[in-house]
Design brief:
The chain is an alpha/beta fold. The protein is built from 11 helices and 7 strands. Helices cover 48% and strands 15% of the residues. The protein has a 7-stranded parallel sheet, with helices on both faces.
Length: 234
Amino acid sequence: MRTMSAIHLIGGEKGGVGKSLVARILAQYLIDHAQRFQAFDTDRTHGALLRFYAQYTQPALLDEFHSFDRVLEAAAAEPQKTILVDLSAQSFAPLVHWMQESQVLQTANELRLTIVYWHVMDAGRDSVELLRLLLDQFDARLPMVLVLNQVRGEAFDILERSGQRARAEQLGAKVIILQRLADITMQKLDAANSSFWAAVNQSSTASGTLGLLERQRLTVWLKRAYEQIDLLGL
């Protein structure tokens, strides 16, 4: 496992693909590996990082440059601290506008900061089209991680047939698979307003918490997600 010092933008553009789930996994990964980080949440109404990891997270509005500028400023102030950004749905256009108007990639390069975009995908055609737009816009200038989220669909045939995965990998993108977790388990986590750590460690006798075997399955699922992150070598 290597230190993940960088700005990590967790996106996917459309709602429901699992962006916030991946952001929560990354936050818990950093906590469990004793890595210092700061998080920003751009969702005005359903901010998952603000909800589950409030002590690490600040709001940042992507359509207000003075607010979102804090992301780059935080990374520049402490280069060894990892920055997580949970991007809301429909964030592609304002993200590109911010990057172009502020010359973000050039500035990050001058400051020796790495920006990584995590494109979270479900199995549908929309995610593939959004990946194409990302690659058209940034080519190899923006390091990318494709997250194939099996929680939102297990067969990624459309992606494979499109040629966009191969194109992304040729441009240097890395690919990980987030395995499926039972819907009822995720529903209980959300209903209990529980972080992954709390869900795994709480007593199963508490109202609304996971049962013994559910906690075991969550532990295994999280371990496999961590193994995928480790493979990236970030």
